[in-house]
Amino acid sequence: MPTAEQHGIKEHSDGRFGFVPVQTRSDRFKSVNVADFAPVTGREAVWKLSPVAKFTDLTAGELDGSVYPVESTPNAGITVGWVDRDDSRIGTAGAPEERAAANAWSSFDQALAITVSGEEAKEVTVTRAGLGSAPRGAHTIIDALPFSQAVVILENTGDARLTENVEIILGESANLTVVTLQEWNDGAVHLANHFASIGRDARLKHIVVSLGGSIVRVNPSVRLAGPGSEAELLGLYFADAGQHLEQQVYVNHDAPNSRSRVTYKGALQGTGARTVWIGDVLIGRKAAGTDSYEQNRNLVLTKGTRADSIPNLEIETGDIKGAGHASATGRFDDEQLFYLQARGITEEEARRLVVRGFLSEIVQQIGSAPLEDRLQAAIEAELRGTEEE
Question: Most buried of 79, 98, 341, 370, CB within 10 angstroms?
């Protein structure tokens, strides 16, 4: 979107086109009103790698914003309930940068609020299942009060055509893990934007696990707003034939002495399996002492797949501890396979061991033993699909 005179840059006098390109990631246009965004064409920076023609009902159509059935595990110190649109927390973590998110924001009737309090460790699982095939918009707030500590697991299963926004707010010294698990049915479409604001000395671990669904796009946007804040963003995805799994990650270091680590890992199998990972890290002018690193790794298991991996790093201050990024996409390591086969392991089992080891780095950092066991079993099921092809 055009913006005026960024960093002292003005439009050219030749032609008077009146367009100044966005110069830094934080200057992208934002609005909670869907009417402020032009119709999606697929040529926009945020949509150019997405199959936009397959979900125009979510970007341009009317959405059902009513409340839906939710199940949650009871836990002292965590409340789960619906709040009105005028709740003071709504809009404090971030705002949409694209039309699907704005459509959801304009459409929801009430927001699902998950409030965490108390310094003792606790865990809650919030499950949505069977949202149906009608296009829907939703909004969720996860509010970790100062000094609170918890693991919040968002489980998504069944059918859905859903666009939603999730706001994550961490008060001073809060320690929060948020796991979003996409195990939708094969035809589901899920577009999600997660906005997080991290206060002084607070720590967020954000984990995206995408296994099911036809099109799944989960985009975390994290602002390290308080001094000493920390974010760890992890992702695991396994794309099968014809499946599109996408994640656009944005980390905004907006305070001094903040730290971030981004690690996303994915595997692809089957004709037409497609994954997209874009990682943007911005170290702002106020973020002296920043320590940041992002990486994306993709393992190609069969022919006919495509993985796009685009890391980006912007630094506006020279006073940092460190910053870097890395990206790699490749097939099995022949030396690893040879090593395992030389010790009497069959080629089939050797391949499974390599993939399990590759993805287990993410699974083991979730911090919920039952969920980790479930995901290991789900990965095994995906690998059995590889053997059948």
Answer: 98
Question: Domain boundary at 332, 361, 378, which?
Answer: 332
Helix (H, G, I), strand (E, B) or coil at 219: strand
Number of domains in the chain: 2
Q: At what angle do helices 334-341 and 347-363 cross, to 10 degrees?
A: 120
Distances (CA, A) of 275 to 162, 194, 219, 308: 19, 19, 13, 6
Q: Average pLDDT over the chain, rounded to whole? A: 91
Starting at the edge strand that comes first in sequence, how are the strands of the sheet with 215-224 ordered?
78-84, 110-116, 135-144, 161-170, 189-198, 215-224, 244-253, 274-283, 306-315
CB 210 within 8 A of CB 185: no
The neighbour count for residue 330, using CB atoms within 10 Å, is: 10
* 228 in a structural domain: yes
Cα–Cα dist 365/281, whole Å: 22
pLDDT digits (tens, 9 = 90+) for 134-156: 999 999 999 999 999 999 999 99
- Reported pTM: 0.91
- For residue 258, give every residue at least 6 positions away whose Cβ sits within 8 Å of its Cβ, in sequence order, or none: 224, 226, 227, 228, 229, 230, 231, 287, 289, 290, 291
- Residue 9 belongs to what domain range? 1-28
Q: What is d(CA 247, CA 264) in angstroms, rounded to the nearest whole number?
A: 9
In this structure, the answer to whether residues 4 and 138 fall within a common structural domain is no
Of 211, 264, 276, 218, which Cα lies nearest the Cα of 238? 211
The dihedral through the CA atoms of 57, 59, 60, 62 has a sign that is: positive
At residue 7, the pLDDT reads: 47
DSSP per residue over 316-331, as a string? --S--SEEEEEEEEE-
